[in-house]
Amino acid sequence: MASLYGRFAASTARKHVLCLSYRCASTKVTMGDPLEHATGLEKRELLAKVAGNDDPFDLKVIKRCAGTKTQPNEIPSAFDSRLVGCICEEDATSINWMWLHKGEPKRCECGYWFNLVHKAPV
């Protein structure tokens, strides 16, 4: 019985020493820059952010300007149409959604005009 306990203690001690040496070795290893590992759309997004474009997909809120028929609010899109939401009043609890199509300015229910303009894709 004593020899069984001795073998168990020796094997546990070896595992503990191996774990400690593994931890020491792993602390020296570092991951490379995420830009080096990224591919495809993720890499293009990271490159756009490095170039200074914080919103490469134009997902942030765009503040409305005059919004007249002669000077509509310009909404960027890489496609021929885009779904746009207009918060007509500052305290509104709902959003008025509408589809914008390239070359066709559209008027919201609140009276503001919107126009789709071309933007190069990411």
Automatic annotation (TrEMBL):
It holds the Pfam family COX5B. One of its GO terms (biological process) is mitochondrial electron transport, cytochrome c to oxygen. PROSITE patterns: COX5B_2. PANTHER family: CYTOCHROME C OXIDASE SUBUNIT 5B, ISOFORM A-RELATED (PTHR10122:SF0), CYTOCHROME C OXIDASE SUBUNIT 5B, MITOCHONDRIAL (PTHR10122). InterPro entries: Cyt_c_oxidase_su5b, Cyt_c_oxidase_su5b_sf. One of its GO terms (molecular function) is metal ion binding. This is Mitochondrial cytochrome c oxidase subunit Vb. Zn(2+) binds at residues 86, 88, 108, 110. The keyword Hydrolase does not apply. Keywords: Metal-binding, Zinc. Signal peptide: none annotated. The keyword Transferase does not apply. GO terms for cellular component: mitochondrial envelope; respiratory chain complex IV.
